[in-house]
């Protein structure tokens, strides 16, 4: 791969597989983990975003499929957020703000969310899905933030669904995976129209991500108790916050 020592490429694949396993176990695609791994191994910045989005698509697609088949997906909850998110994700991706300050703010927000999740000792009862008049603008806001930060948006949607008790842990994972999938597809399509190049090693990277996601999605579907999944999501948010802070 361009700008990467070939002898290090297998280790990059290991990092990708581990990130995919951890993130997919809570319904996330893992973009921030893949970006951190590629940055660590010196992959060219111009190749990092399209590679991360491509891996996001295959991982989130796999996780969503497994959780949907297991009966955890709530379409009524998902679609208002998704319809609000997609156009604003395009808009957010086209705007350049003061990136360093914004990354620090997002890192703090994620740490607060992680603190709340890690302290939780049980899964709270859920409420009915929000009215579309609430979900559409919330989805639009999340889509805008997702476009600004370059991630699929699940890392912001998951804590919101749990905090407001709109879904339990596994339904949150399923809805977040679908949310990440559609936003990542839209983001990658937009990048391709600008002439962005894909790395030559991308098929191997996607294969490593799928391998990790097969394990992680098994954890999401049946192996971990809901409380453990909540705690694992808290760990994921801490990892993402640290990554944003140190790269700001």
From TrEMBL:
Pfam families with a match to the protein in the record: TauE (PF01925)
InterPro entries the UniProt entry points to: TM_pro_TauE-like, TSUP/Inactive_protease-like
Superkingdom classification of source: Bacteria
Principal location: membrane
Keywords linked to the UniProt accession: Cell membrane, Membrane, Transmembrane, Transmembrane helix
UniProt-annotated location(s): Cell membrane; Membrane
Topological type in the membrane: Multi-pass membrane protein
Residues annotated as transmembrane: 12-41, 77-95, 102-120, 140-163, 175-196, 202-221
Keyword Iron-sulfur: no
Any one GO CC term of the record: plasma membrane
Keyword Membrane: yes
Family of this protein: Belongs to the 4-toluene sulfonate uptake permease (TSUP) (TC 2.A.102) family.
Name of protein: Probable membrane transporter protein
Source organism (scientific name): Sulfuricaulis limicola
């Amino acid at each position: 791969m361009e700008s990467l020592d070939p002898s290090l490429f297998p280790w990059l694949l290991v990092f990708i597989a581990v990130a995919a396993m951890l993130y997919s176990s809570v319904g996330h695609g893992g973009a921030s983990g893949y970006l951190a791994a590629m940055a660590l191994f010196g992959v060219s910045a111009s190749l990092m975003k399209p590679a991360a989005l491509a891996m996001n698509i295959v991982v989130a697609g796999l996780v969503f499929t497994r959780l949907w088949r297991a009966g955890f997906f709530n379409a009524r909850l998902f679609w208002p957020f998704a319809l609000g998110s997609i156009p604003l994700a395009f808009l957010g991706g086209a705007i350049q703000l003061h990136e360093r300050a914004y990354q620090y703010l997002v890192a703090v927000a994620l740490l607060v969310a992680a603190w709340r999740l890690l302290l939780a000792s049980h899964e709270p009862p859920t409420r009915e899905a929000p009215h579309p008049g609430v979900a559409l603008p919330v989805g639009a806001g999340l889509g805008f933030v997702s476009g600004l930060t370059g991630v699929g948006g699940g890392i912001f949607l998951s804590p919101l669904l749990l905090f407001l008790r709109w879904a339990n842990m596994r339904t949150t994972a399923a809805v977040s995976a679908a949310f990440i999938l559609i936003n990542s597809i839209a983001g990658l399509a937009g990048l391709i129209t600008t002439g962005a190049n894909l790395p030559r090693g991308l098929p191997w990277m996607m294969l490593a991500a799928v391998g990790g996601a097969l394990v992680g999605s098994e954890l999401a579907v049946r192996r971990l108790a809901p409380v453990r999944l909540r705690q694992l999501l808290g760990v994921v948010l801490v990892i993402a916050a640290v990554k944003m802070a140190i790269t700001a």
